[in-house]
Amino acid sequence: MRFWKSFQIALGVVALDQLSKALLGGSSAPLIPGVLRLTPVRNTGAAFGLFGQGTPWLALLSGAAVLLIWLYQWKGKSDGLFGLGLSVLAGGALGNLIDRVSRGYVVDFLALEFMTFPVFNLADVAVTCGCLLCIVAVLLHKEGARG
């Protein structure tokens, strides 16, 4: 995957994440009754609220991760599904990094109603999906190498 295409995908993820946070109201409301609820939460930690009050370190770690991903992609090391996964992952990390730098916390707002699970946002979904895409790409590559 060419670097500029990867960069555009990441920026698209950032745009969707930041737009969703900008359109979010201040109160809780059902999005899909019984399934998903909009519940604004300030998260000063990492995923699932881990490492609370760690915003400066998490911002530094996120920024370094995005730069390393982009350097890897710039050198043409990622292609196909793996490259897509890295692009989506970088976009999610960048979306939350923007929150940490501009607000001092990450805005989480998606709450599952059918099970107990931490509140999350679209950037978190992108990081998770990006990681899954990378794992699938690696597994498919290993399967292809065997046969």
Summarize the SSE layout with pairings:
Blueprint: H1 3-23, E1 29-32, E2 36-43, H2 55-74, H3 80-103, E3 106-112, H4 122-146
Antiparallel strand pairs: 1-2, 2-3
Search tags:
about 150 residues; 3-stranded antiparallel beta sheet; alpha+beta; single chain
Average the pLDDT over all residues and give the rounded result: 89
In helices, the fraction of residues equals 55-70%
Give me the oligomer status. Answer: single chain
The unreliable regions are: none
Give the total of beta strands: 3
Distance between the termini: 25 Å
Strand order of the largest sheet: 1-2-3
**What structural category do the secondary elements indicate?**
alpha+beta
Number of domains: 1
Using the CA coordinates, give the radius of gyration: 16 Å
Tell me the major beta sheet. 3 strands, antiparallel
Strand percent estimate: 5-15%
User: Outline, from the CA principal axes?
Assistant: globular
Q: Can you put this structure into words, describing what you see?
A:
The protein is of the alpha+beta class. The chain has one domain. It contains four helices and three strands; from the N terminus they run αββααβα. The protein has a three-stranded antiparallel beta sheet with strand order 1-2-3. α1 (3-23) crosses α3 (80-103). The longest helix has 25 residues, at 122-146. The radius of gyration is 16 Å and the shape is globular. The chain starts with a helix and ends with a helix. The model has no long low-confidence stretch (mean pLDDT 89).
